[in-house]
Write a structure and sequence with these properties.
Blueprint (H helix, E strand, L loop, with lengths): L2 E12 L2 E12 L3 E5 L6 H8 L7 E6 L2 E2 L5 H7 E4 L11 H7 L13 H13 L15 H14 L4 E5 L7 H18 L2 E5 L3 H7 L2 E6 L2 E6 L1 H4 L2 H8 L3 E5 L6 E5 L12 E5 L6 H9 L3 E8 L3 H9 L2 E5 L7 H13 L2 E4 L9 H12 L4 E4 L13 H11 L3 E3 L3 H10 L15
Parallel strand pairs: 3-8, 3-9, 6-7, 7-8, 13-14, 13-16, 14-15, 16-17, 17-18
Antiparallel strand pairs: 1-2, 1-4, 4-5, 9-10, 11-12
The chain binds adenosine-5'-diphosphate.
Length: about 425
């Protein structure tokens, strides 16, 4: 692929204050690049230096091998369009007036727009699904629509590159996805090069081919999303504890923020969760957030708890979807239970298919492995085995299982059962 932008060792300052420090990288034609990093790390400043707004005090920005700052501003505008962060438009221009303004770099000083200009503007509105708004005042449409209009104006410039500064940060999630999907379509179908600042790491991961992670005015790392978005990089740059997992649908890295008091660097010991159907997903997330090594089972492959376990890198004993627990998966479950320091029974219904999970917990207690039961609903109301499940369940309590009435008490209880060991965990190893 050909390089469209070459950034060679640039430094940028506001007055005497240096803000960007010797940045060097190249942008390939037709790529979709995200710029990420904490507030104040220099993302917007970098974008300004690429849009010919802030001339670097040192180094060079080459657009198609030519020095960006030696080029005529109108020639740059024919190639590069900019979509700012928030678009406050105070004048009551109509949507089509705003979009046609995008043609100005292509017009002579006093030249009026011609047929071609109107055709390009119309196409830009069609692409952004704003043509039906053409005669509406820009002040009388929603934020999401306005942002699409500004993108239409940028497209009317017929640029080869679009630079965007957090284009969707003020929009709700469905409008964010709508705009980013549009940008990706233009990127893929029209070979438009896109460089965008992102606040949301998961959106950046999902839409970009490559990410520039900024830190203190320098590039901390640059690479594909799974190279840039590692737990170590995020910890180092943002100072935040996160879990990074492969997203089950997109295959891209997915970042999960952990709770403030979680310490993913500490291995706290194994907790085995008996759940199923979706009743255990929140508990699995809670335990992962607190850094526990987790196993779960027996789960029917494909159900919500199983999917959650996969996502969090939890070890599981699996059964074929919809089949009752077989002897094989029961034994696998017992093996996981044998490795655990404590078992948790989530508030699930029992039928003949999953009765063996209760029997497994009975064996856990016989082996002196503590069992905590989360009981949000009485067992009688969720026993579909004609009383067998209730009988085993009550015998668990007689043998010493502790009943908790909600999830909130669980973490405190676990702290008492499993002392924290200072041993580095291997969470990152599961992050493929
Ligand atoms: P980001 O986009 O990552 O939040 P910015 O590029 O906006 O970061 O800012 C980088 C640094 O430059 C910050 O310390 C910020 O305070 C400073 N800065 C940004 N704009 C100006 C400005 N116009 N004048 C002086 N300092 C600025």
């Amino acid at each position: 692929m050909a390089v469209i932008f070459k950034i060679d060792n640039i430094e940028c300052s506001y007055g005497a204050v240096k803000v960007l420090n010797g940045l060097t990288f190249a942008i390939e034609r037709g790529s979709f690049t995200g710029i990420i990093g904490p507030n104040g790390s220099g993302k917007s400043t970098l974008l300004k230096s690429l849009s010919r707004v802030l001339k670097p005090v040192k180094g060079a920005v080459l657009l198609d091998k030519e020095d960006l700052y030696s080029l005529d501003i109108r020639d740059v505008a024919k190639k590069v369009a900019v979509v700012p962060q928030e678009t406050a438009v105070n004048f009551s221009f109509t949507v089509k007036d705003v979009v046609i303004m995008g043609r100005s770099p292509h017009l002579g000083l006093l030249q009026n727009e011609g047929e071609k200009d109107f055709a390009v503007a119309r196409l830009a509105m069609e692409l952004t699904n704003t043509y039906h708004l053409a005669d509406r005042p820009i002040t009388a449409i929603s934020g999401g629509e306005r942002q699409r209009v500004i993108i239409a104006k940028a497209l009317a410039q017929e640029p080869r590159i679009i630079l965007l500064d957090e284009p969707t940060s003020h929009l709700d999630i469905n409008h964010q996805i709508e705009i980013l999907s549009l940008l990706r379509r233009l990127n893929r179908e029209n070979n438009l090069t896109i460089i965008s600042v992102f606040h949301d790491l998961n959106l950046a991961s999902q839409y970009c081919d490559s990410l520039i992670l900024m830190n203190n005015g320098s590039i901390f790392t640059i690479g594909e999303p799974d190279e840039a978005l590692t737990m170590e990089n995020i910890k180092e740059v943002y100072g935040a504890n996160v879990l990074v997992r492969k997203h089950p649908v997109t295959g891209r890295p997915s970042v999960v923020l952990l709770s403030q008091d979680s310490q993913p660097g500490l291995q706290k010991g194994r907790v085995h969760v008996v759940c199923g159907g979706g009743a255990g997903a929140a508990i699995l997330g809670l335990l992962a957030g607190h850094g526990y090594d987790i196993s779960a089972g027996v789960l029917n492959a494909g159900d919500v708890d199983w999917e959650t376990a996969r996502f969090l890198g939890v070890k599981t004993a699996d059964e074929t979807p919809f089949l009752p627990i077989s002897e094989r998966s029961h034994q696998e479950n017992l093996k996981l239970i044998g490795e655990a320091e404590v078992c948790i029974l989530v508030n699930i219904p029992f039928g003949r298919g999953n009765l063996k999970n209760l029997e497994a917990l009975s064996l856990a207690l016989e082996r002196s492995i503590p069992v905590l039961i989360i009981e949000e609903q009485e067992i009688g109301e969720r026993d579909f085995t004609g009383g067998k499940a209730a009988q085993i369940y009550n015998s668990l309590i007689e043998k010493g299982a502790v009943v908790l009435n909600d999830k909130a008490a669980l973490v405190d209880m676990l702290k008492d059962i499993i002392p924290v060991k200072s041993q580095p965990s291997d969470l990152q190893a599961d992050n493929q």
